[in-house]
Amino acid sequence: MRQILSAKQIRDAEQHVFDTQPDVDLMGRAAAAVARIADAVTPEGTVLVAVGPGYNGGDGLFAAARLAPHRPVLLWLAMGKAHEAGLEAAVRAGAQEVDAVGAIGSLVDCSLVIDAVTGLGSRPGLPAQVATFAAACEDEHVTVLSVDLPSGLDADAAEPHESFRAAHTVTFAAPKPCHVLQPAASRCGRLHVVDIGLDVEAGNLRQAEESDVARWWPVPHEGSDKYSRGVVTVDTGSETYPGAALLSCAGALHAGAGMVRYTGRAPSGLIMSRFPSVVIGDGRSEATVLGSGWGDTDNAASRVEWAKLHRLPAVVDADALYSLPNGRLEGWLLTPHAGELGRILGCTRAHVEAQPLECAREAARHTGASVLLKGATQYIAEPSGRVTIAVAGPAWTARAGSGDVLAGICGALLASGLPAWKAGVVGASIQAITATRHPGPYTPDDLSARMPQVIAELTSEL
Ligand SMILES: NC(=O)C1=CN([C@@H]2O[C@H](COP(=O)(O)OP(=O)(O)OC[C@H]3O[C@@H](n4cnc5c(N)ncnc54)[C@H](OP(=O)(O)O)[C@@H]3O)[C@@H](O)[C@H]2O)[C@@H](O)CC1
Ligand SMILES: [K+]
């Protein structure tokens, strides 16, 4: 599990080092890492360092000082001012200063641009001259290595703003929200997280890794039977949308449910012809999946209430999200996309997309359920306010039916005994990992059929 830290948390940790170990040279360590990665990314050719007025620029200048003895280095002081000691060191080492026109003109001969304009102190957006330079880097297809974050981004936010588009970003101590939240994360390229000796504490935002999914996967043991592995009752689909029923059953079966019962309104013959192991009708179960493909069914509220009355942990998807019963929904997992979450909270889809963490947290706090907010980045918020980001996957999974499969996967995991937040994290992550290992335009059901092999590989890698 990777901790994701805010700019304030990093600054506090930095201050702690300054207060307790004044001799430690954090900027020197940061600069050494930048120079090392610059050489690894492009071992030869001219490096142009775009330098801002603060300590981010200082990192760039001390990196320039390390690079200049063995390769040509140009400096552009993008806002006129620069860290004095850093500038002196870079110039002493042989780096050459250029002006704005010279910087853009030299791009054609550069193998690497180091973007050290702004970092944690970045106000969103770029001054016009820097924006022109960042656009020129893209036009010339020059590799950009950003220091800490692509200048122009807000370290704590998902918005892309006007910013550099980096091929590589070197950050310190831990990723910040902008490195993992889309669309900002797409500006960062490959992320290199470097330990510079900051002691950082766990916060309430983190990102799951493949190893977590492997560790948490409910692998059956010698004593397991279909009941102990978990029976999931799937009430999804309708006469209008029978496909949703097949997709959520596919998700639950391929995630390893001990048994799947189907109680929805899609024709049972259709379910049986595709999945003969599914049992039609009600019975003992450990969890239920509700809502995918219901459409505007007339008795949604009573079908959701049924799960509450039976104290059955539920995955609540799609249309069922608008019929949540009163009271705390402890142990439940809600799986809205941004539009659905907006409707639940009484705000717009655009607001949820701009403030995904806050919105997911608010819904979890308000309902008592865990909330899996689906999208390019998938967030699982708990009523406590803690948010875990699922393992990221390729954009191939962004298509109709993926959410129905995911609801079924999460239902199987909930039935196996995982707490709701973990079922959401593991479910969303396994779908992403499967898509990463099988890139291409596979349909959601095709992809779910490849999941068992990926689960077997993952859990045998332990
Ligand atoms: N914390 C750590 O552990 C370590 C931190 N280190 C490094 O320090 C970096 C943080 O340094 P920092 O605090 O000096 O802020 P930084 O990002 O350089 O920018 C501030 C300057 O930029 C200006 N400015 C900002 N946005 C602007 C805009 N849109 N348009 C125009 N101007 C804008 C801003 O102007 P102002 O807002 O004051 O008007 C101010 O002058 C951090 O990212 C990391 O690289 C490492 O060395 C070691 C360990
Ligand atoms: K930067």
From TrEMBL:
Any Gene Ontology biological process: metabolite repair
Domain YjeF N-terminal: residue ranges: 10-204
Database matches in Pfam families: Carb_kinase, YjeF_N
InterPro entries with a match to the protein in the record: CARKD (IPR000631), Nnr (IPR030677), Ribokinase-like (IPR029056), YjeF_N_dom (IPR004443), YjeF_N_dom_sf (IPR036652)
Keywords of the record: ATP-binding, Isomerase, Lyase, Metal-binding, Multifunctional enzyme, NAD, NADP, Nucleotide-binding, Potassium
Entry binding sites for AMP: 403
GO MF term set: ADP-dependent NAD(P)H-hydrate dehydratase activity; ATP binding; metal ion binding; NAD(P)HX epimerase activity
Cofactor(s) the protein needs: Mg(2+); K(+)
EC number: 4.2.1.136
Binding site for (6S)-NADPHX: 244, 293, 337, 404
Co-factor note (free text): Binds 1 potassium ion per subunit.
Superkingdom field: Bacteria
Broad enzyme group: lyase
Classification via SUPFAM superfamilies: Ribokinase-like, YjeF N-terminal domain-like
Catalytic reaction equation(s): (6S)-NADHX + ADP = AMP + phosphate + NADH + H(+); (6S)-NADPHX + ADP = AMP + phosphate + NADPH + H(+); (6R)-NADPHX = (6S)-NADPHX; (6R)-NADHX = (6S)-NADHX
Gene3D superfamilies attached to this UniProt entry: 3.40.1190.20, YjeF N-terminal domain (3.40.50.10260)
Family recorded in the similarity comment: In the N-terminal section; belongs to the NnrE/AIBP family.
Record's subunit section: Homotetramer.
HAMAP family for the chain: NADHX_dehydratase
Protein name: ADP-dependent (S)-NAD(P)H-hydrate dehydratase
Organism of derivation: Tessaracoccus flavescens
